[in-house]
Specification:
2 copies of one chain form a homodimer.
Chain A lengths: L1 H16 L3 H17 L1 H17 L4 H7 L3 H15 L8 E6 L5 E8 L2 E6 L3 H13 L3 E5 L5 H17 L7 E3 L5 H9 L6 E5 L2 H10 L12 E5 L5 H13 L8 E7 H16 L4 E4 L1 H9 L7 E3 L13 E7 L2 H11 L4 E5 L3 H10 L4 E6 L16 E3 L7 E3 L5 E12 L3
Parallel strand pairs in A: 3-4, 3-6, 4-5, 7-8, 7-12, 8-11, 9-10, 9-11, 12-13
Antiparallel strand pairs in A: 1-2, 2-16, 14-15
Helix pairs in contact in A: 2-5, 2-6, 2-7, 3-7, 5-6, 6-7, 10-11
């Protein structure tokens, strides 16, 4: 059955790849309308999911992710409308050249083909991904978490309806509504019909995909993020920046996990950091020297405990911050290379030399000088829509936008040219 | 042991990624020199491989691939010298922008990291890949065919020596000289230290890598290539073009495999094709209509036989050509979509409309109008060096040059910016 979905997706992708921007945007706008028009149906299905999840005793945070309401639906609809307003990357021509022998060569951007998305309990992903896939001329096979199966069924049906209304093949969006995990494994083996797997979820899901997939997988979204406060940093300006990186939205991947502080400023700055951030409810895991220093200055409140063995290898996703004193930029870089997931890492410094050394040496998807790690985000960096944040090295790194859902072909035109 | 090679490669890649172009080119030029300086050692080792291969009864074509001689060695050395003369993609800055909030953002090209290359009985690949890896700041772990182990051991030692002489870490190039296939499996699992696998060999090797790798694999190099002769094609000019595509070097992936001919010109053109190419020793596999037509015109020589069930799904790599009559461009496109490996496919036509229809609809890595498929080649298309020809869709398609051995990082510089 999943095999059959793959075949249908591939056939639909072929049709979609040749469709005009207007036709694709019509489907996206139709989906936006229908989220509001069929609001009652969507919310009724969501209520079924919520009831089951509550009975299963799911955590409050998970229930909140699962929840749809009129406000969230119209937010999703507006997201689709702004997506429809964006340019179409498909058909873009680049690196055009005429060779010495007269051959005319260019690269032409084309859709990737069929994308498999495996995600957890966020029904908004269903709509986001449907929109992104249609916009970029790709077909998508969606596999959402079992907790959201009723919501996802209705939402993916709306996407298919929108495709039909726009005269496009409805099988460009298909939803696997069988909750068996075996279906995910089947999907990961279908290299003949699926071109790319994008997992959206925790580290376990990413690992599962990498270990079992015969299809290229975009891994990412896991961020153990660091900021290093150099001795020459503007400490007064650093404090609100660090607070922004840690506190603004602690549950996301670009939030700060570990603060490294230069020894020369640590005894002055660390107590300020603790005093400031503990007002937001942050608790701290301090390595020995940082801990000692906070004790010496009489500023070790209850919020500070000693860092455990794995604490610097933990993505907190909550109001916890690791603290460590380092002897300088080289030790900071070493720590980052040993503990980072290569998502977002930065330096706060007044030294141009150290800034350049950090940018050249730290090889994360996003490297920062004097800015909050929270900017690693498609909308913040001007991509408009965001597909995922890649922390792997192939194809795309960091925030992925529409263009990263495409590939290219070489187009070569001649006058009956033969190779010498 | 392979694990240990991975760790060393990763550490070396980190150092190499920060090295100057001059230093990398020095290593490449040193390797070029040493191929000539240590010619006797290389040829002696190659003789051992050749003797064993001859005793094992390897085919003539394989023995030829394995053979090194002074001419081939100096060809390899000259290839390295021209590589040293090429620009360094590492450090290139692109898509630089200043955001409305004042953040300065750009993408900076960086090496991929550690590349695993798995190849068959071609010792020149050892030298080519060592040069390409050093040039692009990547470390490489090489696994050549067991038939060439003595040659490869000497050649990879020369590459390591060249790195040392240039002051670079010798472990940037490592060679797995244990012929056990289990070592390949181990290499394919090392996702913590290896960033990319490039198989260079036949379809079986590519399949093995895709099925067993936890690391992204660039598959490619398998070409079932098509040319469609439209009714409006310049038939006189088409003949030498088809001959070029089929005959110039039949053993390579961009050689022609199947010729599709428009029904309206088939009875005139097919006999000409057969008469012309059979002088080069080409034999033909004709589907029913083509066969009948050749018989009707009294021009079915011994070189033409009926096409078997799998013949249109075979990459010939030899002087065999499939022949098929089609009703027009749509049937040609359908045949290509059903049988192509999406390497190189082209149309010969006088119709601009049909040319554009073909280019838009046939989604191969390289699509052609009025040119021989033999141009799908890094050096022909202006890339200089060629790493591989990718027929998969992620990261790179078609001929891959130096730039395709790199990735990028986002660099974000601010003045203590926080996200609103």
């Amino acid at each position: 059955m999943i095999q059959e979905m793959g075949r249908k997706a591939k056939a639909s992708a072929r049709i979609l790849s040749g469709c005009s921007r207007e036709q694709k945007d019509r489907a996206i706008l139709e989906l936006a309308e229908s989220l509001e028009r069929f609001q009652d149906e969507v919310l009724a299905a969501n209520k079924v999911d919520l009831k089951a999840a509550t009975e299963k005793g799911l955590a409050e945070a998970l229930l909140d992710r699962l929840l749809l309401n009129p406000g969230r639906l119209s937010g999703m609809a507006n997201g689709l409308r702004s997506l429809a307003g964006m340019g179409d990357p498909v058909g873009e021509i680049f690196e055009a050249q005429t060779l010495a022998n007269g051959l005319r060569v260019h690269k032409r951007r084309v859709p990737l083909g069929v994308i498999g998305i495996i995600y957890e309990a966020r029904p908004n992903v269903t709509v986001d991904v449907a929109g992104l896939a249609i916009k970029t001329g790709n077909a998508a096979i969606l596999r959402g978490g079992s907790e959201t199966v009723h919501s996802n069924r209705v939402l993916s049906d709306l996407a298919r309806l929108a495709l039909r209304v726009a005269g496009l093949p409805e099988d460009a969006i298909q939803f696997i509504d069988d909750p068996e995990r075996a279906r995910v494994l089947e999907l990961l083996q279908m290299h003949e019909s699926v071109d790319l797997i994008i997992p959206r979820g925790g580290a376990g899901l990413h690992r599962f995909c990498r270990e079992n997939s015969r299809i290229p997988v975009i891994t990412g979204g896991i961020g153990i993020c660091h900021l290093f406060v150099d001795e020459s940093a503007d400490l007064q300006a650093s404090l609100p920046l660090i607070r922004n990186a840690k506190v603004q939205r602690p549950s996301v991947c670009n939030a700060l996990d570990t603060l490294l502080v230069h020894r020369r400023v640590a005894s002055r700055f660390l107590p300020e950091v603790v005093a400031c951030l503990e007002m937001d409810g942050v608790t701290f895991r301090a390595e020995a020297e940082a801990l000692k220093l906070l004790e010496q200055t009489g500023r070790r409140p209850d919020s500070v405990t000693v860092a455990g063995a794995d604490d610097f290898d933990t993505e907190w996703l909550s109001l916890v911050l690791g603290l460590k004193v380092v002897s300088g930029i080289e030790e900071a870089i070493e720590h980052i290379q040993a503990h980072s997931t290569f998502h977002s890492d930065g330096i706060l410094t007044g030294s141009q030399k150290n800034a350049q050394r950090f940018l050249a040496t730290v090889d994360s998807s996003a490297v920062y000088v004097n800015a909050s790690t929270r900017f690693t985000d498609g909308s913040q960096l001007g991509l408009g829509a965001e597909v995922a944040i890649s922390t792997q090295r192939l194809h795309a790194r960091g925030p992925m936008g529409l263009r990263e859902l495409t590939t290219y072909k070489w187009v070569i035109e001649g006058d009956y040219h033969v190779r010498e």
